[in-house]
Specification:
Layout lengths: L1 H13 L1 H8 L14 H13 L1 H8 L2 H4 L4 H5 L38 H4 L4 H8 L2 H12 L1 H4 L5 H12 L44 H5 L1 H5 L9 H7 L1 H9 L23 H5 L40 H12 L5 H35 L12 H22 L3 H29 L26
């Protein structure tokens, strides 16, 4: 018994001091001693001191785990037009040991899909053919706000181009022009000729796949009166399931392995439009799996969307989306949903859009409104919002199973807009009186010249 007591005493008391010492808190530190170049170490250590939030994001990323440093993404050829000339001053500093000339490396501030393609070639190739990458091209083809200069430059920079993307340029000092930067728009035109920004969804410097899988990533741009996908998703059963169980989802599953029923219960935007499931491969082309262009004035098949005709067959893409749906739903459930969606499209096209478009054309033909500008006469605004606001909400609400958006925010509002538009049009057709023109139109004056840097499509 005495012997046992001695052993217990030895374990409990004599061992207490080193055990306690092991549990004492230590200062957290990031140690950079992997097989990186001295220049790369200098970048990381400098940012660790100057911008610790940026550094901490990188340190928690998969890039850091894979020994990918700042230079792997930001390093540029000295002849590149987007080399940050200001950054060279960092290597002339005397207040930090990391600012020495031997660490001098040309870098570009904006990391582009072309840069990312060195490690992610398939994803970049898929993205390059999507409507996301081409959205700047599309708006310059069809959008009256841009084509007719009906908003000014600062309204575009702070609004439209934040999501659609600017045309990056450098100023006289060799810095990115503040009129075009900062910007992570999905259709950004980069100085190396590539289109888009991967950090639209995978924000720097964590570049988290988990973040891009959550609906909030898409909701940064897909919201509001004209394309309220995030609000529609939130109302839907899918959104309700996400709100209830989202914190238990396995958001960090490796790319290509995120599986319904295993890693998550209800889908997010990415689950349906990008992630792989069952026989369907993962894609970064969000225009795949679509069988209707629901944002267009007249709903058409993707290959008939004139600004950017799809090079795929809508039937094949519908089969892909239905295969995604059938990971959780029966075939009959999925097919019946699409039957209803097709009927909604026909109802919108035939009952609302086509008659309203015919009336608008008649007003132009009679000279009651002019074609020289858009939005400066009331029928143009009413017609625009009929398809761009209420009509989109009705169609998208139906597609994503949000009945309040399909009806109260959608077709109900379509009826009100349609009746108002038709009443004013018929009154002026009867009287022959021209519509009042708002002139000067407030906030107009933006350039009507299509940026030459935009590629032809």
């Amino acid at each position: 018994m005495k012997r046992l007591a001695v052993v217990v005493c030895f374990l409990g008391v004599c061992g207490a001091v080193p055990a306690l010492a092991q549990n004492l808190p230590k200062v957290k530190e990031f140690r950079i001693e992997r097989g990186m170049s001295e220049e790369a170490k200098a970048c990381l250590n400098c940012h660790k001191e100057e911008s610790p939030g940026l550094f901490a994001d990188w340190a928690m990323s998969r890039h850091a785990s894979a020994n990918i440093s700042c230079l792997d993404c930001h390093r540029a050829d000295p002849t590149d037009p987007d080399v940050n000339q200001e950054h060279f001053k960092q290597y002339e500093r005397s207040d930090t040991k990391w600012g020495r000339p031997e660490y001098k490396v040309p870098i570009a501030t904006a990391v582009t899909p072309k840069d990312c393609s060195r490690c992610h070639p398939d994803e970049v190739q898929q993205y390059s053919r999507s409507k996301h990458a081409k959205t700047n091209i599309i708006v310059w083809k069809i959008d009256p706000w841009m084509k007719l200069g009906m908003n000014n430059d600062i309204e575009r920079q702070s609004g439209c181009l934040t999501c659609h993307g600017t045309v990056l340029k450098v100023d006289a000092k060799g810095r990115l022009d503040s009129a075009t930067w900062p910007n992570v728009g999905v259709g950004r035109v980069n100085m190396d000729g590539s289109l888009g920004s991967c950090t639209s969804c995978h924000t720097r410097h964590r570049f988290s796949v988990a973040e891009a899988r959550r609906p909030q990533a898409c909701g940064q741009c897909h919201l509001g009166p004209d394309h309220p996908q995030i609000e529609i998703y939130t109302e839907s059963k899918h959104g309700a399931i996400y709100d209830s169980f989202g914190e238990s989802y396995n958001w960090d599953a490796a790319p290509g392995t995120w599986t319904p029923g295993v890693d998550y219960r209800g889908p997010t935007c990415a689950s349906c439009h990008m992630s792989g499931a069952g026989p369907v491969m993962t894609t970064h082309d969000v225009t795949e799996r679509l069988s209707w262009e629901l944002q267009a004035p007249l709903t058409v098949r993707p290959q008939d969307f004139a600004p950017l005709p799809a090079k795929t067959d809508w039937k094949a893409e519908r089969e892909k989306m239905q295969a995604i749906c059938m990971q959780c739903h029966t075939k009959s459930w999925v097919e019946d949903h699409y039957t209803k969606l097709d009927a909604v499209v026909q109802n919108y096209n035939d009952v609302y859009f086509k008659p309203a478009k015919a009336m608008l054309d008649q007003l132009y033909e009679k000279g009651l409104i002019s074609k020289d500008k858009f939005f400066d006469e009331e029928p143009e605004i009413e017609f625009y919002e009929l398809w761009h606001h209420e009509g989109r909400r009705a169609r998208m609400g139906s597609a994503m199973m949000a009945p309040d958006y399909a009806w109260w925010h959608g077709f109900y509002e379509c009826k009100h807009r349609y009746n108002t538009f038709m009443q004013m049009a018929n009154e002026h057709l009867h009287s022959g009186e021209k519509f009042y023109k708002w002139a000067p139109f407030p906030g107009e004056g933006g350039s009507t010249v299509r940026p030459p840097e935009l590629p032809e499509e």
